[in-house]
Amino acid sequence: MKRRTFIKNSLAVLALAGAGTGGLSLLDKSGFVTTAEAKGFTSILPIPPLLENLDTSGRAASFAMDVKQGTVEFFPDKPTATLGYNGNFLGPTIRVRNGQRFQINVNNSLPEVTTLHWHGLHVPAQWDGGPRQPVPAGTTWSPDFIINQQAATLWYHPHAMGLTGEQVYHGLAGLFLIEDEVSDSLDIPKTYGVDDIPLVIQDRRFFGNGQFAYAQNMHDVMNGVIGNYLLVNGVMQPTLTVPTGQVRLRLLNGSNSSIYRIAFDDQRIFQVIASDGGFLERPAAMNSIVLSAGERAEIIVDFSKESSYAVISLLVDQMGGSKFEAMRIAVNGKAEVTTIPKTLRILDIIPEAEATKVRGFIMETMSRGRGRMGMGMMGRRLTINGKKMNINRIDEQVDLGSTEIWEITNRSAMMMNMPHSMHLHDVQFQVLSRNGRIPPLHERGRKDTVLIMPGETVRIISRFHDYTGVYMYHCHLLEHEDDGMMGQFEVIT
Ligand SMILES: [Cu+2]
Fold first, then answer.
1. How many angstroms is it from 421 CA to the middle of ligand 1?
2. How far is the CA of 258 from the centre of ligand 1 (A)?
3. Where are the alpha helices (DSSP H) in 216-264?
């Protein structure tokens, strides 16, 4: 991961050069703020408000979402221009039930086009919210569909052509939780904001005037826009107070292009109970977990043995970049849940023999034979199967009702050892293998986004059921996606 050391080293050197001036004045030559002046963990972790309608009488859950501009004072007296859903930064947590009819009016109050993509949702193509469903400035888009999948921690964010990275960076993202009879019946922490805690983890960098330093120069496109400040639910260095018992954390790597290794300062073991698309068969014990941009995991952490007011730190290692003390967790109060179940749900395993087709996808940082440094590479870098996104071209056609294996290879050229994060719309897939090996326990449930390291081949299997139409597959490093590392598959009858 040499790719990020350039930024990091240059920032570190310049930060040292400016040491002593304090706070916001520590800038490097490019004008980025380079020191994380401590907030001292004095802020309380904000919990995004719930947008839900638990009426199960058959009526639709109807919501309104305003996509708007705002400001946030990440630094005193330097308001940062932001974007938010129904607020200044990030959005509410939508919570629905499997089988519920979901209606929402998405009103675009921005001066530019946006879209709203339901990341991980199995929805009709017309309501997917990808680049094919633009919501022009000043208009309203009104999806209406039936929730048709198991309990999971999903999320939503904009996905307009070439604008995804910038809009997400400025604050457009929120969680989307689905509950079902299994999540109801399991004896796991499920009181939202008390022992069931959403954590949207993102990094940002800032200019000295407090504005987000979002650029798409060539370096940032290739490496992703990597931040030197860490936000959890939109706040730097917050503290969360939890009860003395089992606590469920719903982790989202909501960064644009970072890969996070998440752990606790005492290296404690926690139980991973869910991947992107829902519960695992049984909890997987780990003491750190890697999430690439767009991936989620639900973990349960045992705080039952802590004394009152014990403080544990959540650490986020931006692999190849900075290491952050992201958040502190103070333990206090009566436990709601003290033990967790040994089994979670029967996995609906997709047998390999069910697949009728195998497709290959090469994610490449530089197209072979055209990779000479110079003008020739400008339009060709970051491709899938040698192509960049073209909204007028369907790259793959898939039969409705079929099961397919997709073999995805990260073939990074020399000196361009770039990880990628492959995301498919429409489906929740199952990982068959990583470089020929069975994936680790926590990757054996349903997923919609998968990290593919340089040189790796990951085989996934999915069922293309229920809906026809055009969907995207793309790298979820958002600067790669915006540069065209994306293709379209059409499900046909
Ligand atoms: Cu990528």
1. 6
2. 11
3. 218-223
Tell me, yes or no, whether 86 and 165 share the same domain: yes
Q: Give the domain range for residue 358.
A: 352-492
- Please check whether residues 50 and 114 belong to one and the same domain: yes
End-to-end CA distance of the chain: 43
pTM for this entry? 0.91
% of the chain exceeding 70 in pLDDT: 87
Ligand 1 centre distance from Cα of residue 265 (Å) = 30
Residues 328, 424: Cα–Cα separation, whole Å? 34
Tokens of 487: 């293709």
Final residue before a domain boundary, out of 127, 161, 180 = 180
Query: Averaged over 193-205, what is the pLDDT?
Result: 97
- CB-based contact 201:235 (threshold 8 Å): no
Handedness of CA 234, 114, 69, 226 (dihedral sign): positive
Query: Separation of 391 CA from ligand 1 center, angstroms?
Result: 19
Same domain for 228 and 281, yes or no, is yes
Q: Are residues 124 and 246 in the same domain?
A: no
- What is the band of 117 on the pLDDT scale with cuts at 50, 70, 90? very high
Nearest to 147 by CA among 173, 174, 175, 127: 127
Query: If you measure from the C-alpha of residue 455 to the centroid of ligand 1, how many angstroms do you get, rounded to a whole number?
Result: 13
Q: How far apart are CA 211 and CA 224, in angstroms?
A: 18
User: Would you report the helix, strand and coil content of the chain in percent, each value rounded to 5?
Assistant: 10, 40, 45
How far does the centroid of ligand 1 lie from the alpha carbon of residue 184, in Å? Answer: 37
Q: Ligand 1 centroid vs 41 CA: distance in angstroms?
A: 33
Quote the CA–CA distance of 403 and 439 in Å, as a whole number.
20
